[in-house]
Amino acid sequence: MAKRKITVTVDDDLVDAVQALGAGSLSAAVNAALAAEVERRARAAALGRLLAGWDAAHGPVPDDVAAHASAAFDDADAVADPDAVAERPRRTRRRGAA
């Protein structure tokens, strides 16, 4: 794949951290991070199109269902970030609540 030389400005502490963690090439680390960001944005755009299509076909998601889904995603994020579990108060759900 063709490469293009550009100038970017990054935080000193990020450069120091990636080098301390053994990045062989700062350019390769920046390229990998940019590739991950492009993928993340493409997936978010695809999800947005999917949800817009569902809204068009079935109407908007009710507020209570959206709140429940948001709480479920928060819980999933907490599993991915163990520190967040200790920092965030636990939600309680009513028995039988969806």
The overall number of domains is: 2
The CA-CA distance between the termini, in Å, is: 49 Å
Radius of gyration: 20 Å
What is the count of helical runs?
Answer: 4
Average of the residue pLDDT scores: 85
Helix and strand succession?
A: HHHH
Can you describe what's shown?
- This protein is an all-alpha fold.
- The protein folds into 2 domains: 1-59; 61-98, no CATH class.
- It is 67% helix and 0% strand.
- It has 4 helices and no strands.
- Mean pLDDT is 85; it is low at 93-98.
Which helices and strands appear, and what pairs or packs with what?
Layout: H1 12-20, H2 26-58, H3 63-80, H4 82-87
In short:
The chain is mainly α. The protein has 4 helices and no strands.
Question: What keyword list fits this structure?
Answer:
2 domains, mainly alpha, 98 residues
